[in-house]
Inverse folding.
C-alpha cells in the first residue's frame, strides 16, 4: 500500500486517483473530528471539503519529508477556527442524543446513555480549545503526540501538558456533574472486575 | 506499548495496571489520567458519545463536490494562488518594496542630504519589517503552524499606529526649503496629493494583488487586514523616501491616514460580512 506521502507526490505529479485515495483515507476522520466541534453536520461537511480544496491549492508547497496527515489536520483545524471567527457558532452542548446505541438495549437505558453522552459532550465543550483539540486527536483519533504537535503547531512537551490538563479537567468536570444515584452515571458504571488490582 | 494500545485496552474495559501499561504511564501523564479511577474517564469518553462515521454515499457526494470545485480551479487566478508560498510572498513583497526602491533610484526626497540618517534608516527598517511580516502572515497557507495568538493583531496595530506616531513626534528637521511646505494653506492640497500617490501607487495595487495571491481570496478578515496593513505601510514607505515635507500635520493627514483608511475599509466590509453570516 502506498504511503500518504507517496500518494501526495503522485497527486502533485498529476495522478488524480491519488487524491481520491487520500480522500478515502482521511475524509472520514476529518468529518468525525469536525462534527464534534462545529454547529451542524452541514458545516462539518463544508469544512472537510474546504480542507481538501486547500490541500489541492497547496500541493505545490508539499516538500519531501513533510507528512500529509498533520498537514490535513492542521488545514481542517485552521479552517474550523476561521469558520468560528466568521460565524461565531460552535457545537451546541445540548444536541439531541446521537443515534441509538444498538439492539437489545431498552429505551430507558438508551435515554440514560443519551443523557450521559450529552453530559460528556458538555464537559468536552467546556474545555479550552487548545486542550480539547489535543484530546480529540489523542483519544478519539488515536494520533501520536508527535503528529498532534505538528497539527496544532506546538512542541510535543506542550501538547502532552495540554492533554494531561485536559483529561484532568474532564475528570473533575464529570465528577462534579455526576449523580452518584443514577444507574447510568458514567463514573459509576465501573464493573467490579474492571479496576486496578 | 504506545498511547493507542492503552486506549484500545481501555475501550475494551481493561484498565489493569499490567507491567507494560505501568511502563507507559511513567512517561505519559495523559494516559495516566485515563487509567485513573479504574478507567472511568476512558469509559465516559467511549466512542458513542461522538457522532457516528459518515455513510459511504455521504462521502461520495462530498468527493464529487470537491472534484467539482477542483475542476473549476482554472485560469490565471487559480495558477497564481497555487504558486508555492515563498513565491507568492516574494511577489507581494516585491510589489510592496519596488516603488520605494525606484523612488530612491531616481534620487529620493529632496532633503535626503539633511535628513538624519539614523532616523531615516530606523523608520525604513520598521516599515519594511512590519510590512513584510504582515504580508507573510496574510498569505500564510492553512497548513502552516499557528503563530502566537497576539502576533497578527499586534502587526495590524503596529502598521496603523506607527505612521501616526512618526507624525506626532517632533519634525526630523527644518533645514531644507522643500521640507517647510505642507502647512497652512498648503496643508490640504499637499496632504491630498501624498494620500492619492500612496494610495494609488503601491497601496491599492498591493491590496488587489494579495487578494489574488491569498488562497482564500481574503475570505478571512484577519488575513485581509494583514494585507491591507502591509499595503498601508508600503505607501508610507514610498512617501518616507520620496516626500520631503516634515510638517507633522502633513505626515498625519497625508501619510498616516492611508493605512487606517485601508484597514478601516477592509474591517468594515469584513465585519459586515461576519454580521450577515451570523444572522
Amino acid at each position: 500500500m502506498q504511503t500518504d506521502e507517496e500518494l501526495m507526490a503522485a497527486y502533485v505529479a498529476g495522478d488524480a486517483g491519488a487524491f481520491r485515495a487520500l480522500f478515502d483515507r482521511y475524509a472520514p476522520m476529518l468529518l468525525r473530528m469536525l462534527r464534534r466541534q462545529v454547529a451542524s453536520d452541514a458545516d462539518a461537511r463544508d469544512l472537510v471539503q474546504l480542507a481538501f480544496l486547500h490541500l489541492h491549492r497547496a500541493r505545490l508547497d508539499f516538500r519531501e519529508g513533510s507528512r500529509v496527515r498533520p498537514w490535513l489536520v492542521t488545514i481542517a483545524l485552521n479552517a474550523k477556527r476561521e469558520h468560528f471567527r466568521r460565524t461565531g457558532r460552535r457545537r451546541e452542548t445540548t444536541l439531541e442524543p446521537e443515534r441509538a446505541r444498538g439492539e437489545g438495549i431498552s429505551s430507558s437505558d438508551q435515554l440514560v446513555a443519551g443523557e450521559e453522552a450529552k453530559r460528556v459532550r458538555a464537559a468536552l465543550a467546556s474545555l479550552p480549545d487548545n486542550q480539547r483539540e489535543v484530546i480529540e486527536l489523542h483519544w478519539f483519533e488515536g494520533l501520536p503526540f508527535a503528529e498532534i504537535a505538528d497539527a496544532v503547531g506546538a512542541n510535543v512537551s506542550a501538547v502532552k501538558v495540554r492533554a494531561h490538563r485536559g483529561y484532568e479537567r474532564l475528570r473533575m468536570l464529570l465528577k462534579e456533574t455526576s449523580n452518584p444515584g443514577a444507574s447510568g452515571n458514567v463514573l459509576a458504571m465501573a464493573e467490579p472486575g474492571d479496576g486496578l488490582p | 506499548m504506545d498511547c493507542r494500545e492503552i486506549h484500545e485496552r481501555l475501550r475494551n474495559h481493561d484498565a489493569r495496571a499490567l507491567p507494560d501499561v505501568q511502563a507507559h504511564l511513567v512517561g505519559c501523564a495523559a494516559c495516566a489520567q485515563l487509567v485513573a479511577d479504574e478507567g472511568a474517564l476512558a469509559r465516559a469518553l467511549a466512542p458513542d458519545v461522538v457522532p457516528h462515521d459518515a455513510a459511504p454515499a455521504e462521502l461520495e457526494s462530498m468527493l464529487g463536490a470537491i472534484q467539482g470545485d477542483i475542476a473549476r480551479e482554472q485560469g490565471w487566478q487559480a495558477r497564481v494562488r497555487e504558486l508555492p508560498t515563498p513565491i507568492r510572498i516574494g511577489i507581494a513583497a516585491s510589489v510592496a518594496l519596488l516603488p520605494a526602491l525606484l523612488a530612491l533610484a531616481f534620487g529620493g526626497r529632496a532633503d535626503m542630504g539633511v535628513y538624519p540618517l539614523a532616523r531615516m534608516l530606523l523608520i525604513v527598517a520598521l516599515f519594511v519589517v512590519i510590512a513584510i511580516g504582515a504580508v507573510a502572515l496574510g498569505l500564510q497557507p492553512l497548513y502552516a503552524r499557528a503563530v502566537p495568538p497576539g502576533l497578527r493583531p499586534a502587526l495590524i496595530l503596529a502598521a496603523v499606529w506607527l505612521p501616526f506616531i512618526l507624525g506626532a513626534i517632533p519634525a526630523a528637521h527644518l533645514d531644507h526649503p522643500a521640507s517647510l511646505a505642507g502647512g497652512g494653506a498648503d496643508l490640504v492640497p499637499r496632504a491630498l496629493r501624498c494620500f492619492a500617490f500612496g494610495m494609488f501607487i503601491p497601496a491599492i495595487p498591493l491590496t488587489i494583488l494579495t487578494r489574488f495571491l491569498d488562497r482564500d481570496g481574503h475570505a478571512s478578515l484577519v488575513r485581509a487586514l494583514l494585507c491591507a496593513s502591509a499595503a498601508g505601510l508600503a505607501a508610507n514607505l514610498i512617501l518616507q523616501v520620496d516626500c520631503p515635507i516634515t510638517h507633522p500635520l502633513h505626515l498625519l493627514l497625508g501619510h498616516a491616514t492611508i493605512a487606517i483608511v485601508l484597514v478601516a475599509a477592509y474591517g468594515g466590509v469584513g465585519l459586515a460580512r461576519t454580521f450577515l453570516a451570523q444572522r
Notes: Chain B touches chain A through 65 residues (CB under 8 Å). The radius of gyration of chain B is 27 Å. The mean pLDDT of chain B is 90.
